[in-house]
Amino acid sequence: MMRYEDNSGQLGFDALLRQADDSNRQRAFERETAHLPGGMDEALPFFRSLLEKHDEAMRSADTERVFTLREEARKLALRLNDGKPGILAGENAPACVLERLTAAASGEIPLWGQAGEFVIDAAGTRAHIEMDGIFGIGCSVSFWPGFAARCVDAGKPFISETGYRSFLGLHADAIDGMTPDSFTRAVLETYAVRDLKGRLVAVDRKFLSSDA
Predict the structure, then answer these.
(1) What share of the chain is helix, strand, coil (3-state, %, to 5)?
(2) What is the per-residue pLDDT across 91-115, written as a single tens digit (0 to 9) for each?
(3) Are 120 and 167 in contact (CB under 8 A)?
(4) Which residues pair with 91 in a beta bridge?
(5) DSSP code of residue 143
(6) pLDDT per position as a tens digit, 63-84
(7) What is the largest CA-CA distance in the chain?
(8) 3-class secondary structure for 164-211?
């Protein structure tokens, strides 16, 4: 490729091309996201509405709609981040702020795509569920969001000897009418039957805490 840079520090031809490419990408991104809010105050109600639509799509097993809305959420976070990556880079990153400020109240069953935590009875045990939101790991490729299950009753059998088990990248057919609590309950019960042969395990004492 032809290169040129004189002693005055002018940009070479390849650098000018890169600069033009960057400018074109930025203009394309701005056109693509022009309908989205550009500030957090406007973004929060927009995002809450998006979560409601995503919940409806999940409950009706509308896979195409689900992934369209998740992509819309990603573009919203990118727009709030001036089109730059790092939307989940820290607690003040746009996606993290959106998720935190729209999370379900503790103990409430969240909407699909809404971060939340709640307790369920499943497979003969109680589990504290920490549900991933719409920006969760794997949500761009897996219909079902990930979640983590923690032991609630210290000293009682659980699905893991550590008192903790995460479920990420769950690939299964979309099911009409499924809710976050019914989904997590079904996953735990299936895991207990299939992987534990129907037998829960004792939680190792070293993993038990006084507030478990």
Answers:
(1) 40, 10, 50
(2) 999 999 999 999 999 999 999 999 9
(3) no
(4) none
(5) S
(6) 999 999 999 999 999 999 999 9
(7) 76
(8) EEEECCCCCCCCCCCCHHHHHHHHHHHHHHHCCCCCCECCCHHHCCCC
